[in-house]
From TrEMBL:
<dbReference type="InterPro" id="IPR005176">
    <property type="entry name" value="PONY_dom"/>
</dbReference>
<dbReference type="GO" id="GO:0031624">
    <property type="term" value="F:ubiquitin conjugating enzyme binding"/>
</dbReference>
<feature type="region of interest" description="Disordered">
    <location>
        <begin position="1"/>
        <end position="23"/>
    </location>
</feature>
<dbReference type="GO" id="GO:0045116">
    <property type="term" value="P:protein neddylation"/>
</dbReference>
<feature type="domain" description="DCUN1">
    <location>
        <begin position="44"/>
        <end position="232"/>
    </location>
</feature>
<dbReference type="Pfam" id="PF03556">
    <property type="entry name" value="Cullin_binding"/>
</dbReference>
<dbReference type="GO" id="GO:0000151">
    <property type="term" value="C:ubiquitin ligase complex"/>
</dbReference>
<dbReference type="GO" id="GO:0097602">
    <property type="term" value="F:cullin family protein binding"/>
</dbReference>
<dbReference type="InterPro" id="IPR042460">
    <property type="entry name" value="DCN1-like_PONY"/>
</dbReference>
<protein>
    <recommendedName>
        <fullName>Defective in cullin neddylation protein</fullName>
    </recommendedName>
</protein>
<dbReference type="GO" id="GO:0005634">
    <property type="term" value="C:nucleus"/>
</dbReference>
<keyword id="KW-0539">Nucleus</keyword>
<dbReference type="GO" id="GO:0032182">
    <property type="term" value="F:ubiquitin-like protein binding"/>
</dbReference>
<comment type="function">
    <text>Neddylation of cullins play an essential role in the regulation of SCF-type complexes activity.</text>
</comment>
<dbReference type="InterPro" id="IPR014764">
    <property type="entry name" value="DCN-prot"/>
</dbReference>
Amino acid sequence: MPRSKRRSAADMGPDDDDRHCNKRFRNTTSVRRFSKTEDTSSPFNQKRCITWFREYTSPDDPDVLGPEGMEKFCEDIGVEPENVVMLVLAWKMNARQMGFFTQQEWLRGLMDLQCDSISKVQSKLDYLRLLLNDQVTFKSIYRYAYDFARDKDQRSMDIETAKAMLQLLLGKHWTLFGQFNNFLERSKYKVINKDQWCNILEFSRTIANDLSNYDVDGAWPVMLDEFVEWLKASKDVRRS
């Protein structure tokens, strides 16, 4: 669809410019006020959802919500960008890149959640958090996080990003996470590949904290074999 012609600043007089700015301010304010107070019981409206999306995009790239828009979106729904619920929401959208939502991704996720306003998303936050309690869903979110967070120019995830994502996903649930994080900080590893990433979750779920059921002949990645050796050596040092 062709875009309508816009009058340039050179074509406008002072009065025109003031009216134009005031109109833009009124429209933006009314849309934000509408989004914040929308009844959570009203039916999902795709047009309203897209209008809301456009609050967070720029005229130069109206179909992509970027980092600045993401920060404002998080502020509006009352969630820190680093909160794990944002990862769950991105998973719902099947967003491809951290810090960005395309219009298609936005519609996919929010249509599934039946959300077209701030208040509706806020009403779904507890539900999104509860999804992490289901082991099958958590595994899906965990695996998704690898491709979501890694640099798309690289096949592996850099170690700093990996540590941050592991903290987000496993930090509160895996008793050995602190030791594993210390191991990574002292290790030679600069990146984590997807096989290592997936096996870290399985290790955290299946291996006892005292390593009593760890099989040295198992098919774990070398990284985890080295972690076990490092942990046992650390315990020996503490005992001595």
